[in-house]
## 1
Amino acid sequence: MAREIEFRDALREAMTEEMHRDERVFLMGEEVAQYNGAYKVSRGMLEEFGAERIIDTPISETGFSGLGIGAAMMGLRPIIEFMSWSFSLVSADQVLNNAPKMLYMSGGQFGVPIVFRGNDGAGGQLGSTHSWCVESMFANVPGLKMIIPAFPDDAKGLLKSAIRDDDPVFCLESERLLSLKGEVPEEEYLTPIGEARVRRTGNDCTIVAFGRPVHFALEAATELAKSGIECDVIDGRSIRPLDMDTIATSVRKTNACVVVDQSWPFASIASEISAQVQECCFDDLDNHVHRVNNDDVPAPYATNLEQAMLPHAGKVIEAVRSATYNL
Amino acid sequence: MDTKPVQLDNIDVLQVLNEEGMVDTTKAPPLTHDQLRRLYVAMVLTRKFDSRMLAMQRQGEMGTFAPNLGQEATQIGQVFPLTADDWFAPSYRSFGAQIWRGWSMEQLLLLWAGYHEGFPPPEGVNDLPFSIVIGSHVLPAVGVAMGMAQKKQQHCVTVNFGDGAMSQGAVNEAFNFAAVYKAPCVFVCENNGWAISTPLQRQAATESLAVRGIGFGIPSIRVDGNDILAMVAATTTAAERARAGQGPSLIEAVTYRMSLHTTADDPTVYRQEEHVDPWHQRCPLLRFERYLNRESILTEDECRRIADECEQRVLEARAKFREMAKARPEEIFDFVYHTMPPELIEQKKDYLSRLARKGLNP
């Protein structure tokens, strides 16, 4: 049986179910306990699990990231919440040097089964230092996994898989999706990391998107269908590992590809997918792969300027029309 | 109330064994003759290993490493009180302490020559990997300590780092977390006076680094790091406090980096020999030997024999290392993930086919 719940509640259900299942799991971060989470994702968890497992920290991202890594190395299963992935930049050495490389650098001895999670991307007038999309920058590092759910059911299923994973998993959530409602099964389920999901089918163009931009892609596809252009919309769900098989299968059918990515264009997730599509589907493409990214500027603060800078359905529609001009 | 702000820039140095080898019996830790001999052997072995590894590096057999000449008492003293259930988080200069903890010298040679067999701690040795990024390992060490507390274990973690690491934000965040959460850990700051070419006076406005611990609410002590007995006394107390749930301690071990920062360093560029000279007199081995000889715990002959035996053990380790040091290029894809993801399987296939065609030739 499924019921409709919010994205944030799906995240919380994932954490509480896994904490009941495995006593090694705990949640640590700023404001996660007394305050129920800055975005109320951990609402009620302090009462349910107590202060030993729902741990408020000083404002010290480097500190609690590093602590979590040590705790994971000695056999616990930490979930580390960044209020925003923007703030993870101050702890980059812990997050990018220690977590993903420890297994390698200890010759297989020390795994780091940790989940780092929090808001990624523009939250709505948060200013340029607080609107980071870290996926393009962080996905460059081997040794980590990265998930980026777009719907509540995947948020729950992917986060549960992440908590059980033996490798470090970065879970990127969009603040703008936290109140989104969607059907989530009541019974236990896991969403495998590394598998994309086709959200809509069509034969004319493949749109690949991750996280919040999946919604822009779906909106664009609905609009394009009115003028007879039918799109496959692929919700990537995981960035590392990347499900290239699903993407390539679709491109071989549609012969056109648009990638929607909420980070900056230079050396981005969209660039990577574009390169890979051109490597594996070179002879299938009727046009170059089109990328829809943020404009290549820091996020503006004014609401209308911020909207203009971000990807949205209108930009996706233009890109699809350009990629399918020969239809 | 007085409006004059409070300032603390130094605290006394704990010394038990002075440079002449005289012991302050009121402060001496209760050690048996056998324990004293084991400490001495470990310090001699550390020095022999250090000088042999330096020679091997100069002959092209080792990678870059950080020698620890003159820091043997700090090295061995900090791990002496640890049991097998306690954890040790070394820094990259801690190979003397690692030998004490149970790492074989041939494995440490493999490590510093770059072979991955060198990296995992031996079975049953609860040591963390060190970090080359200064101070990066201190937070994970506190994480292990907090994990111990969560698992209701009554053990402790000793984490070693240098004076240079005291300038890192991560280390200061580690102090704060450990203090607030009463993490069972012992911070050993091995103050050897230099962050590569930057002297302590350019790193800190205080004479002592231990005063910083006090600001975090951490009981802190300044110890003569060339005095093995003071090191044992201070670290034993700190480890007992940690295990008893009383929280962390900071030990500033004052020593001196008599040799190179690393084998890539040339100290003649930034310091004169006369800076180093006084530290020959403060040598941790020399004063310990004087004491052991005077108390007839070890005779001069026995000390010479120990030196020969240690040299022999180092040479045997070198021979084993030479047997074991074989590169297996197909292994570079191992241990990136617990289970290899599809893209890495593809990349490994390409890499192996290139190796089959071209070998390791560029």
Note: Chain A touches chain B through 44 residues (CB under 8 Å).
## 2
Amino acid sequence: MGNMMRYAGNVYSALLSLYPFEFRVRFGPEMMQLFRDCSRDALEKGEVAVLIAFCIQASRDLVVSLVRERGREIWSWPVDADHPLMTMVDALLIPSIVTGNLMALGPILTLLIQGMPAIDAPIDQFMLTSGMFSFGIGCLTVLASIVITRLRPTARLWVKLSA
Amino acid sequence: MATKGKSKEPVEHLLPLTPAVFHILVTLADGEAHGYAIMQEVNRRSGGIVRLGPGTLYGAISRLLADGLIEESEERPDPEMDDTRRRYYRLTKRGSEVLASETERLAELVRAARSTKAVRKLRPA
């Protein structure tokens, strides 16, 4: 259970990097502390189900607030909004996060819902190949969105310096 | 952050408040608190109906700071007993005004709803 909590904390910490740079720097440590406090609470109740329920709730909250904060950052940034570089970075960011997650999670969800096929069962080669491709491209897109997120503050600095 | 400079906006422009923001302001009206305490108190006050996750809570706190409704407190209620990494927040004068205006607005709404036939009929004796 303790390992599960540590693992959840590490995943949450990694996902915090998707928030806008300023927001992450200002509130990231506090959010992480809050996540630890809440998961410790769940752990004290002694049930795995409570911890899982909390992790699901925290994931949903993360997705909703992430979209909201990204939206706020993109739409209420009058200084840089018209700059082509910022527009390009912004235009790439949200679609890459959404598409990447959908493509990476799609095959996993399908496997979870339908179950793992038996080893001797006939496998539709096309479905398997396309699923693997989708997963691979999805993972690459998630990686790309993380790179773009990291690139954003640099692009912003570059825009400021060149202005 | 993106919403800097909004603190001069008239109080009425900030209304209506979202349920999360309203609950946070009500919690801070009783005294300064850190994120975890706010989360617990909002959960308790709302009878578990409003559950703030870390993202929602700090998103709201970020907007409240930018609008000048709350501020970070430098003091610690009990530095020896508390984790120094925690940040405490407290209501500003402007925050109190906004909370009072929103409370009044909601009270008006409740009065108006109670005066309707449908609600009068359903109200317990």
Note: The longest strand of chain B covers residues 70-73.
